[in-house]
Amino acid sequence: MKCDYNLIRESERENLNLNPLQRAGVLTKEAREALYDFGDGYSVCDYCEGRLDKINKPAINTFLEDVADFINADLVRTVHGAREGKFAVINKICEAGDTVVLDGNAHYTSYLACERSKVNVIEVPTSKDDENKITIDKYKEVIEKSIDKGIEIKLALLTHVDGDYGNLTDAKAFGKICQELGVVSLLNCAYSMGRLPIKANDWDLDFVVGSGHKSMAASGPIGILGMKSKWEEVMLNRSPKYPKKEVEMLGCTSRGAPIATLMASLPYVKKRVDNWEDEVKKSRKFVSNLEKIDGIIQIGETPTNHDLVRFKTPILHEIGLNHPRKGFYLYEELKSRKIVGIKRGQTQWFKCSTYGMTNKQREYIANSFKEIVENLS
């Protein structure tokens, strides 16, 4: 039977991809080799004796220790993504009817994890301006007011860097207020772990979650769950019937290509976080070049502290109103210049990332936008 599912993708090989979901997930050469060798579903299980985290060929056991050291956590487990890590923590720490505090920029999966765990949610509002920021003072205020009303806050979840604006929050201050108020802390690092340094213990955080396929150059889906050692017995309790298996992990998590590619990319990822400040400078320069175009304005925290940036673009929307291809013109104009990652039909705003690109590539992208506006407005 012929396989006719259009399994062809040239976005990364043939184009400059601006999709912030994908920029920091681009595989290394070593990871692509591991993908070939470990593509079979249970390929890392050849020498398994019942515990994924104890496998020594490939050396998953020492890999997990290396990741724990990398993010400054006491213990680490792989999960199937940051969302699964969040759910595991909320499901284990909370009971149905408990209350969790989330920030107003939280990813939808943070809410779904709460819904699935049947807990109540109190939201910390963002600032009422184009920056849409979450401040730790506001976070503390929301928790304290809830406690004053007699509401027990079982857990607080903060999005380290949100996926809408690329706003970087103060993780250390978050950890401090949670410890002071006796609330379990969970930091969602899906857009930060693997891009910038994570210091879970230094920040006094109970739990952190990350994403291998978003930010750690892995094929995925795979995530990282880091925790303080005091939570080991709670989070990693064993099954009475199958005593080798950790219940909240459902025995074993990522097998095959996801964990193999993450392992292969880790040395590279550990080095690249040291260049984070330079990456931020390059992102700010890219923003500056785009904002030279009248009608393209960055929103979110300014100056940006991340590679993910969002722009409102009234000039691009205005062009689309009079263009025969309407809003689809922008995608087509960019694609003709070998630039992809902006959604089809989107002109009022867009978000993008140039993470890992050269200065020449970033300048080319900014000049392409300038050329499109000059030619069509």
Draw up the topology in text.
Blueprint: H1 11-14, E1 16-17, H2 29-37, H3 60-71, E2 75-79, H4 82-93, E3 99-103, H5 108-117, E4 120-124, H6 136-148, E5 153-159, H7 171-181, E6 184-189, E7 207-211, H8 212-215, E8 223-227, H9 232-235, H10 257-272, H11 276-291, E9 297-299, E10 309-312, H12 314-322, H13 329-336, E11 339-340, E12 349-352, H14 359-376
Parallel strand pairs: 1-11, 3-4, 3-5, 5-6, 6-7
Antiparallel strand pairs: 2-8, 7-8, 9-10, 10-12
Walk me through the structure.
The chain contains 14 helices and twelve strands. The protein has 377 residues and is an alpha/beta fold. It folds into two domains: 11-23 and 274-376, Aspartate Aminotransferase, domain 1; 25-272, Aspartate Aminotransferase, domain 2, CATH 3.40.640. The longest helix is centred in the C-terminal third of the chain and has 18 residues, at 359-376. The radius of gyration is 22 Å and the shape is globular. The model has no long low-confidence stretch (mean pLDDT 95).
Which terms summarize this structure?
377 residues; alpha/beta; Aspartate Aminotransferase, domain 1; Aspartate Aminotransferase, domain 2; three-stranded antiparallel beta sheet; 14 helices; 39% helix
